[in-house]
Amino acid sequence: MIDWDVAVNTGARLVRPGPQVDLAEAREAVAQLRELSVTAQGHVREFTGMHSLEPAGPAVIVDRPGWIKANVDGFRVVLEPLLDRMSSGRLGSTAGSITTAVGSRITGVQLGAVLAYLAGRVLGQYELFLPPDPDGRAPTGRLTLVAPNIVHAERELNVDTRDFRMWVCLHEETHRTQFTSTTWLRDYVQEQMREFLLASDVDAAAFLDRLRAAGEAVAEAVRGGEANLIDAIQSPVQSEILDRITAVMTLAEGHGDYVMDAVGPEVVPSVAEIRRKFQRRREGGNRLDKIIRQLLGLDLKMKQYEEGAAFVRTVVGEVGMADFNRVWESRETLPTMQEIRNPQEWIDRVVRAPELPPADADDVPPQAPPAE
Description:
Elements lengths: L3 H11 L8 H26 L11 E3 L1 H25 L3 H11 L1 H16 L4 E4 L14 E5 H11 L3 H20 L4 H14 L5 H19 L6 H5 L2 H27 L8 H13 L3 H9 L2 H22 L1 H4 L12 H5 L1 H9 L21
Parallel strand pairs: 1-3
Antiparallel strand pairs: 2-3
Helix pairs in contact: 1-3, 1-5, 2-7, 3-5, 3-8, 6-7, 7-11, 8-11, 11-14, 14-17
């Protein structure tokens, strides 16, 4: 259903080149990013009280085409088995006809074009899903930093380069810590993604309806409305699943934003200036850029940063870091989107909920009163 090679080639062909740097400057940036990614591990661990269950080496430093290839590899790990199942299973001949009509190469071109746009914006990420390691020694995920984008951003913002690079490393290392200090979170996210895909009700009529909805979303975005392609193409069941995915990603992104700022000026001396300038950059862009961001759901991601960080600030301020960390205990302690927007509800449900009696409490005979 997706020609992955076409996606990689299209993305690499369409992506804009990075900033002009000489060889010495490029090597210095790569070396410093690796060093700071390791230093950030200690700061995140000390500030959050969270400890990785996996060995964590330095970040992998890539250029824009390298980021595209890494993401296509991750998509293949998650999506390929599901797409094969969907095309050969319950969707039957309808899926075959749709695939034939649209074409896996066209889908690959579309994916590559989206990744080419994103590859010029992403500073770093924790890659949850990597191709299997034949030797079984590599970690499950990988922290990746996109050096050209970091250099471009720090130049554009005119900020201290070491401070900015440490600031970015703190955010991305927080994501690595979130997923490596738990035994269940990565599986939970993958499970929700799998359910989201398998909940697709694509048949010929529904497919045409989704195409029309996507076209209307584009038209509304151009007119200045708030529509995006994600909302336009999902089914009602998928909408419910997406709420759960959105909740956990809002928590993760907000936690990363909170940590990168709250670690403090002793680690990033110019943190207040960097945040102020970076926030303006997030909100900027020309008209076309804003339309593309809206259609791809990137504006929704910006809202996730804000809502998630506000949730973390409120909960930590109310009950402290140790009790906040109960969000990472299990899927049951994750906040819902309603709780993220109303943190007191999560505090009341998880932190201040009365302890349940033991399951066999009714079977324990009452104690006799003490003899006089």
